[in-house]
Amino acid sequence: MKIFARGTLAVRRWWLTRQWSLLLPALPALLAVAGTLTVIGFTLAVDERDIMARYEREAEEYLKAKQYDAALTCYERLTLAAPQSREALYGLALACAGKKEQERALLLMKELAPHEGGGYAEAHLWWAKHLIQTGGTSKENLDLVERHLLHALEMRTKDAETANGLLGELYLSRGELDKAEDRLRWAVGENPQLHLRLAQLYYTRGDQINGRNSAEQAVRFFQAWTKSELHARSGRLGLADAYIMLGDFPSAIKELQEGLNATNDQEYRRAMARVYIGWSEHVAKTKPNSVGDQLNYMEKGLAIDPDNHELVLRIWSMLQLKGKESEKAYAVLRKQLSSGKGTALTHLALGMHAWDEGKQEEALVHLEQAYKLAPSMALVANNLAWVLANTKPPQLQRALTLINSVLERWPNEPMFRDTRAYIHYRMENWKEALNDYQAALPAYAHTPNIHERLSEVYRKLNLKVMSDEHAQRAQELRAEMNKKKKP
C-alpha cells in the first residue's frame, strides 16, 4: 500500500508541475496497476468465453430435447454476443421453426442460405428438406431442392450422407439413373435403408441380380430395425417394400398386419392395399389370363382400405374389357355379393358397369347399396350423385346434398367440382354452375362436354363473347376426336 501511496503523491506532483522527473518514483506503482488491470481484463474475457460456451452447450441440448423456448433464449443471447456467427443464427432459426414461428424461421434461413448460393451449408440442407416436405413435386420445386443440396455439398455440410441420399432419390424419381446410382452408393454406407432405392434403381435398369442383392440387404436392415423397435412404423413399411421388391407379397402383408395389430395405425391399412395392388399386377404379368386371381387380390385390398380409389378404378377398368375378361370380372363380383363378401366398392363397380350398359335401375340399386355400406366414401358418393342427377325423373336436390358432403372434405378435387357443376347446370343454377365449371376446367380442358356446357351457362348469363368462345373450343375438340377415330 505504501508503494501505491507514494505513487499517488508522485503523480499529483507531476500533474501540478508537469516535470517528468517527478513521475519516476510513481513507475513501480503504475506498473503494478497496469498488471492488475491486465489480469482483471483477461479474467473477464475468459469468463465471457466460458459463458458463451455454456450457452452453446445448453442451446444444443435444449434443441435436441425439443425444449424450444429455452433453446430460443440461449440462441438469442448468443446472436447478440456474436451477430456474425452462422452457427448461432442457424440454431436460432431451428428454435423458431420448432416453436412454429415459421415466418421468422424462413427469414433467418433465407439470410443464411440464399437460393442462388453462398451462405451456410447446414441451412442449405434444411431448405432442401423443407422444400421436399412442403413444396410438392413440380419441376420448379425439385430444381430448387437440387440446387440447395448441391450447395450444401459444395460447402461441405456435416451431413453429406443425407444430402447425397436425397439427391440420389431425386435423380431416381427423374429417371436419371447414373446420377442416382453415384449418389446412393455414396450414401448407403451410413444410411442402409437406401438399399431399397438402389434395388428400385437396378430393377428399373433390368439388372435383376444387383436388384435382388440390394433388396435382400434392405430386408436385413429393416428386420433388425423392427426387432429393436416394435412400433417403428417407418422400419416396418420399409421392410414391406423390400419384400415387395423380392416378390414376397405374403411376408409383406404379414409384417404390415402385425404393425396394424400392435398399433392400430391406419397407415398400415393403406400400405396393405398397395401391397395387394402390387400382387395383382404381379399376377397380371405372370398369369395374364387369371383375371379372377387379380380381382381376388384387389378385393382383399378393398376390404382393408375401402377408400382406395386406385383399386376401384382398376376393377372398373376390368369391367370395361370386352369378351371373356369382362365376363369373368363381372362373375367374380357377382359371386362375392352372393357369398356375402361384397364391399361398397364391389357395388360401386357393378353399379357403374350397369350404368355403362344402360341399366339405370340396376345401377341405382348398386350405388345406393354402396353408399349405405360406406357413406364416407367420396368416389361412391360422387358417382351416386351423378346417377341421381340422370335418373328419370332426376333427383337433383338429393344429388346436390350428396356431392356437397363430398366437397366439404375434398373442396379442390376437379372430378367432384365437375359433378356439382353438372347438377347445378341441370337445376339451372347458372352462377353456381359457372363457379364449379371454372374450378374443374383446368383438369378437363380437353373435354368437349365441359366447353359445351360452359357455352350454355354463359349464354344464360348473357355473356355472348365467352359463350361463343367455349362453343368454338368444343367444336375444335370434337373435330380432333373425329380425326383420331378415322382409320
Notes on the protein architecture:
- The chain is 79% helix and 0% strand.
- The chain is mainly α.
- Among the domains are: 1-104; 113-190, Serine Threonine Protein Phosphatase 5, Tetratricopeptide repeat (Alpha Horseshoe); 375-487, Alpha Horseshoe (Serine Threonine Protein Phosphatase 5, Tetratricopeptide repeat).
- Helix 9 (177-187) packs antiparallel against helix 10.
- The longest helix has 38 residues, at 27-64.
Can you lay out the helices and strands and say which pair or pack?
Elements: H1 2-17, H2 27-64, H3 68-81, H4 86-98, H5 102-112, H6 121-134, H7 139-154, H8 160-174, H9 177-187, H10 195-205, H11 208-228, H12 233-245, H13 249-263, H14 267-286, H15 291-304, H16 309-320, H17 324-338, H18 344-356, H19 360-373, H20 378-390, H21 396-409, H22 414-427, H23 430-440, H24 448-460, H25 464-485
Helix pairs in contact: 1-2, 2-3, 2-4, 3-4, 4-5, 6-7, 7-8, 8-9, 9-10, 10-11, 11-12, 12-13, 12-14, 13-14, 14-15, 15-16, 15-17, 16-17, 16-18, 17-18, 18-19, 19-20, 20-21, 20-22, 21-22, 22-23, 23-24, 24-25
Briefly characterize the structure.
With 487 residues, the chain is an all-alpha fold. It is built from 25 helices and no strands.
